[in-house]
Write a structure and sequence with these properties.
Length: 116
């Protein structure tokens, strides 16, 4: 098993920076944690491992123009499964999601798959 390090870069513009807060979480692999070790992928398998990024606006102001980039290390293959959120792309080992706006208390998530 290999330890995967995923760097999440966020670029967003806020009307009032001091009042805005964005909580970010990532779960990889999306499997039973009682069987599979968290934050570890099995190398050399024939399937793709799924990861989920969750963003929550914990502030009291609306967040605007949220852009999330996830750099996938080790030149792993990337797949974007069909899901509710549509503005997700993969290019040159980077997954990019254009979230747009997120109101106070709102959460949004997206899933992508990598082949270790």
């Amino acid at each position: 098993m290999k330890l995967i390090a995923i760097l999440i870069l966020l670029i967003f513009f806020l009307p009032q920076l001091a009042a805005a807060e964005l909580e970010i979480g990532m779960d990889i692999p999306l499997k039973n944690k009682e069987i599979y070790q968290e934050n570890r992928l099995v190398a050399g398998v024939s399937w793709y491992e799924r990861g989920q990024v969750v963003l929550t606006n914990t502030g009291d102001e609306r967040l605007h123009n949220i852009l999330v980039s996830v750099d996938v290390p080790l030149q792993m293959g990337i797949e974007i499964p069909v899901q509710e959120m549509k503005n997700i792309s993969a290019d040159n080992y980077t997954v990019t999601a254009r979230i747009g706006d997120l109101g106070p208390g709102e959460s949004i998530s997206f899933i992508f798959s990598v082949k270790p």
